[in-house]
Amino acid sequence: MSGLGRSILFVAGLTGLTVTAAWLGYGGHAAWVSLALLGPLGVLAVVVGHVVASRRSAIGSLRRQVGLIAALIVAQLVIAVLLFVQMMFVSRHDAYFTVLVVAFAGAVGVWLARVLARDVMQDVDTIRTTLSAVGEGRRDVRTGLTATDELARLGAEVDTMIDRIDREESARRALMAAVSHDLRTPITALQLIAEGLEDDIFEPERRREQLGRMTTHVRALSGLIDDLFELTRLQAGDIRWTAERVALDELVQETVDAMRPQAEARMVAVRAELPPTAATARANPEQLQRVLFNLIQNAIRHTPADGSVVVRAEPVGDGVEIEVADTGTGIAEGERRQVFEAFFQGGERKARTDGGAGLGLAIARAIVEAHGGRIWLEDTDRGTRVRFLLPDVGTPA
User: Fold this and answer.
1) C-alpha span between 44 and 56 (Å, rounded)
2) Digit-coded pLDDT (tens) for 331-380
3) Is-contact 45 76, C-beta < 8 A?
């Protein structure tokens, strides 16, 4: 049903209620008069109102639209009173003062509509001006609307959007700066080595050494580019993988065993603490193992000799939680929100160290979130505890 049809149906129902009230109060004649006057008048009013609504672009501003609707309401009141006075044989004295009262009430209504439209338009102009400034590149503007109506909520959403855009642009600039830095270092080294080989400045016994350094830098560049490409696809949701029921105790133990040689080389103990009842989650095992590799490797890097890294898995109410805890340098309180951002560099504990590109934690977060989970830092008095939740726990088949 069209909008006009619904409006006519509303007027018909309202007229029926009014006619019924008139019949109950004053009898059949009053009911008939009410039906004869209010029915056609109501239908005419909604038809004119829909014509006004359909010509909004031609009418112009909201102020004019509100003014036309207010004028239509007043005109309907005046016509209804005049027709009732004519048909009900009311005295001229009563009719005169009835028209005065209706005209007074209508004028006050029009004035209040103008006041309301003015305030509404001020808010609309504020939002429009703010969005225009954002479109021109400014990020220091806000609507500042503090009321509780729909326009104020819209203004609050606009302010939130500007904050998000500002943060994303700042993160993008920081990312580009970090990528440029990480690319410049190996590229500069490769250029110097290549020029040295071309100019034949290296002694024969050092040429193999320089070629080995070139291979190392090329691998670093390749790894950085691969990580950036994968992180971009993860954040854009372009990567799809199959999920299956994964026995987490087996996966965790396998990953810990694979990382043990690296830990022993740095004189760090690494072990798994698993629950007596095996927990499972629906996930992609390769991607989940990559999360564990990234977290354990990051923990080993930041744990001094004779320290330890412990990987735990435990069922919780809405899933299974896996934790990687270390006895390393820890993370400052002011940096905890940023550790999962790409290329984040902290104070004592840096995300980019020992040749790492600073993308491991960012990729881990993207993979966990792609599984419908979340990852965070757990409070601890010593070292760092990274914990992530995977939904859908069950028991192995």
Assistant:
1) 19
2) 877 777 777 776 665 544 444 434 445 677 888 888 898 888 999 998 88
3) yes
pLDDT digits (tens, 9 = 90+) for 23-77: 888 788 778 877 877 778 778 777 877 777 677 666 666 666 667 777 777 777 7
Whole-number Å distance between alpha carbons of 296 and 303: 10
Residue with tokens 């006050």: 108
Cα-based distances in Å from 243 to 38, 54, 255, 290, 392: 66, 52, 19, 15, 12
Residues 6+ apart with CB under 8 A from 42: 11, 14, 15
Q: Which residues contact 287 (CB under 8 A, 6 or more apart)?
A: 241, 367, 370, 371
Amino acid at 350: K
Question: Across the beta sheet with 308-316, what order do the strands follow?
Answer: 269-273, 308-316, 319-326, 384-391, 374-378
Residue with tokens 């290296």: 202
Angle, CA 81 vertex, CA 80 and CA 84 arms, to 5°: 85
Q: What is the model's pTM?
A: 0.52
220 with 355: CB under 8 angstroms? yes
Q: CA separation (Å) from 21 to 30, 32, 42, 81?
A: 9, 12, 17, 18
CB atoms within 10 A of CB 354: 11
Contact 376, 395 (CB under 8 A): no
Neighbouring residues of 174: CB distance < 8 A, sequence distance ≥ 6? 343
Contact residues for 154 (Cβ-Cβ < 8 A; gap 6+): 127
The strand pairing partners of 374, in sequence order, are 389
Sorted by where each starts, the structural domains of the chain and their CATH numbers stand as 3-135 (no CATH), 166-236 (1.10.287.130), 244-394 (3.30.565.10)
Give the chain's length.
397
Contact (Cβ atoms closer than 8 angstroms) between residue 384 and residue 330: yes
